[in-house]
Amino acid sequence: LRRRTMVIGGSAFILTAMGGWAAYSSVRPYHPGSPPDIAGMRFPLYDEQKVVYHVTFSGGFRNRNYRNLLQVARNHLNAVGEGFLDLRILMQGDGLDLLLAAKSYPDLARQIDQLKKCGVRFELCWNTVTSKGIDPALELHGVKPEDFVGSAVAEVAALSQKGFVVIKL
């Protein structure tokens, strides 16, 4: 009985593996230059956009979440085009830690500065700054008085009323 079970089980495994291989080998792998040439794909242009990213999360291990956020912003800007995207990154709660981290991590600071040069606005919730007891001039990267909003939640609502799309990342 045991030998019979082993034979049946082994046969089932071999048939399953063969079926998997047949399915795998029937899929045509992508080779550069094969139609369609993925590397050369073109997409239609996007209309002008007004967007606010409402950021309330922490940076996570090695600021991975913040690095991802900044890459998403860069990709968004590249897709829509400089001058055609009014992008605000509105930080509240743990999201404010992005600018705290940028004081210690030059790569984050560099990415933020590059996005600012392209017109992306980084805005901070004043309620969060005061509740955390942060000295913006000493502890936050590159902030100016015009970067502050009284309440992030009220600002999200106000921007939404002005036609901004709110994205919660």
Provide structural commentary.
The protein is an alpha/beta fold and 169 residues long. Helices cover 49% and strands 15% of the residues. It contains 7 helices and 5 strands, in the order αβαβααβααβαβ. It has a 5-stranded parallel sheet with strand order 4-3-2-1-5, sandwiched between helices. The radius of gyration is 25 Å and the shape is globular. The relative contact order is 0.14. About 15% of the residues have low confidence.
- Element-level helix/strand string: HEHEHHEHHEHE
| Rg (CA only) | 25 Å
State the total count of DSSP E strands.
5
Shape: globular
Mean pLDDT: 85
Please outline the helices and strands:
Elements: H1 2-26, E1 49-55, H2 64-80, E2 85-91, H3 97-104, H4 106-117, E3 121-125, H5 126-132, H6 136-139, E4 148-149, H7 152-161, E5 165-168
Summarize the structure.
The chain has 169 residues and is α/β, with parallel strands linked by helices. The chain contains seven helices and five strands, in the order αβαβααβααβαβ. A five-stranded parallel β-sheet has the order 4-3-2-1-5, with helices on both faces.
